[in-house]
Recover the amino acids of this structure.
């Protein structure tokens, strides 16, 4: 099961933008810093961002913690422009302030010593996997990494992931790597994994979960449900589990697939 984060203190504070780096036509990375020390964060956790300057955006938006650098007192969010709120965030400049509630949610669990690990992600859903990969490396693990994108032009941060382990790619149009979806890549069958961590579109995660159940492989997924508050009050991120309906923001966003009614 994922680690409990009940002991962690949530913060509501304004952070300063260190850099807003464009990775593609609709994906960018916000690097943020706090006036004091940033808190300890775990891979899989997320933040709730207040969107100032966007009158039509009333609710905060959730984003996975993409990377953390404690020595520089910064962390990064990988964001895809999907509406007026994220478009507003894409216009932030160095020195601007943005208000966050963080860190929120639970985290991925650590594998056992000697286990074979695969990180799988699709599109902007790769967001929490970079932090997870670095966390695993710090703890002595070298994961394989399987990433899926629509085309060569959509591939992001390949070099960053390559520094953590062997990277395998799929593209839907076959312009780079194996043609098709993540579940079409032969590495899933040629390498026997003990645990697979996954984040991305629902259909992709459900396909990976189905494969893991068939192969008796442990699997944890990070759900990307809409979250209005991030603290379990608004009930808009409910997910059906073997324990009944639970809030993704407080009981997740990371779930073992055996706990989900998929």
């Amino acid at each position: 099961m994922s680690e409990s984060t009940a002991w962690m203190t949530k913060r509501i504070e304004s952070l300063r933008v260190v850099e807003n780096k464009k990775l593609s036509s609709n994906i960018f990375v916000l690097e943020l810093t706090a006036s004091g020390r940033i808190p300890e964060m775990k891979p899989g956790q997320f933040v709730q961002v207040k969107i100032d300057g966007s009158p039509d955006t009333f609710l905060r938006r959730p984003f996975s913690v993409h990377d953390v650098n404690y020595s520089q007192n910064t962390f990064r969010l990988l964001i895809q422009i999907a509406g007026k709120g994220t478009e507003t965030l894409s216009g932030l400049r160095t020195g601007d302030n943005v208000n966050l509630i963080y860190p929120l949610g639970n985290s991925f669990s650590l594998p056992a010593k000697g286990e074979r690990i695969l990180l799988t992600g699709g599109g902007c859903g790769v967001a929490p996997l970079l932090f997870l990969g670095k966390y695993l490396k710090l703890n002595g693990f070298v994961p394989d990494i399987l990433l899926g994108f629509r085309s060569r032009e959509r591939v992001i941060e390949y070099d960053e992931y390559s520094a953590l382990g062997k990277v395998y790619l799929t593209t839907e149009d076959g312009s780079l790597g194996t043609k098709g979806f993540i579940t079409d890549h032969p590495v899933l069958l040629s390498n026997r994994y003990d645990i697979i961590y996954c984040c991305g579109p629902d259909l992709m995660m459900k396909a990976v979960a189905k494969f893991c159940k068939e192969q008796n492989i442990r699997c944890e997924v990070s759900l990307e449900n809409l979250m209005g508050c991030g603290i379990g009050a608004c009930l808009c991120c409910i997910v059906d589990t073997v324990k009944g309906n639970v809030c993704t923001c407080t009981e997740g966003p990371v779930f073992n697939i055996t706990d989900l009614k998929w």
